[in-house]
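Figure 6 in text form: structure in, sequence out.
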């Protein structure tokens, strides 16, 4: 009798765990509220044939930390490529567990924002200035410090969230701030035509080995009156495959297929950044979760 009861408990436990794995909800870690990641994630959610939850985070570094420590969660996360590489330097085995879910790449432009009339027009003008570089949870923090190190531009770091930096700029607490996001970033766009800010031109020969040269055209933001030069960092969708069972793999494959099938519609009705998505990137050297041709 006791043996039968134990057998029943074992079978019930296996059945329950199987149901949990099958019904576990997919969660997309996006980024800051009002940022490009959030809008793209919601576009993916709307195209999905299974339930998907979109979560905000503090940024790319926070996203990385969360998928390292899964705690039985099913996360897909947006991640800056430079953040992934920086963490690989600390953990060379990262490629065993981390996979690029989609071979859809998009470039996140590096915005350096200063007040209009401040005289800060190019990178060298930041020397000695108070510059908000994001928090340690944000990809902007990694990007800003990479640029500072490679270009030897000696500004004064101010650790402050990109979403809080605009008000700090208006209040005179900082002189400029970094915001890394696919242009147009919704929260920056919504500042309106009268926002007393400008973008700083970013051009330095030392940055081309990591970042892609870009321009942000006049009119991309209501307050942007001239085209500026900058760089961009590739953004990826990444999953952690450690201890992933077949049922969860199927859920991720379904999300991948739904997203690929929705790409055309995203480019018509979704965030403008979808129009810049590309499928081949010779710079990205990272294993894929699942390879499938993009629907043309």
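Output sequence:
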């Amino acid at each position: 009798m006791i043996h039968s009861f134990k057998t029943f408990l074992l079978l019930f436990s296996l059945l329950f765990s199987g149901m949990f794995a099958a019904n576990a909800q997919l969660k997309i870690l996006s980024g800051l509220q009002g940022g490009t990641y959030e809008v793209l994630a919601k576009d993916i959610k709307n195209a999905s044939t299974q339930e998907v939850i979109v979560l905000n985070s503090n940024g790319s570094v926070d996203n990385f930390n969360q998928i390292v420590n899964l705690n039985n969660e099913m996360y897909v996360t947006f991640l800056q490529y430079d953040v992934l590489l920086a963490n690989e330097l600390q953990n060379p085995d990262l490629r065993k567990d981390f996979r690029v879910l989609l071979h859809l790449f998009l470039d996140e432009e590096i915005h350096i924002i200063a007040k209009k009339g401040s005289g800060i027009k190019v990178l060298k003008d930041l020397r000695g200035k108070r510059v908000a570089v994001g928090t340690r949870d944000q990809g902007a923090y990694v990007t800003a410090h990479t640029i500072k190190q490679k270009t030897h531009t000696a500004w004064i770091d101010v650790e402050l969230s990109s979403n809080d930096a605009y008000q700090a700029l208006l209040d005179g607490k900082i002189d400029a701030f970094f915001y890394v996001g696919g242009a147009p970033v919704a929260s920056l766009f919504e500042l309106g035509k009268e926002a007393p800010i400008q973008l700083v031109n970013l051009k330095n020969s030392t940055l081309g080995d990591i970042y892609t040269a870009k321009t942000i055209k006049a009119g991309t933001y209501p307050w942007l009156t001239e085209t500026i030069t900058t760089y961009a960092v590739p953004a990826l969708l990444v999953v952690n495959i450690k201890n992933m069972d077949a049922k969860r793999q199927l859920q991720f494959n379904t999300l991948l297929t739904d997203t690929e099938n929705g790409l055309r519609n995203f480019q018509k009705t979704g965030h403008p950044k979808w129009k810049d998505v590309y499928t081949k990137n010779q710079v990205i050297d990272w294993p894929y979760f699942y390879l499938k041709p993009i629907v043309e």
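Caption detail: The two ends are 61 Å apart (CA to CA).
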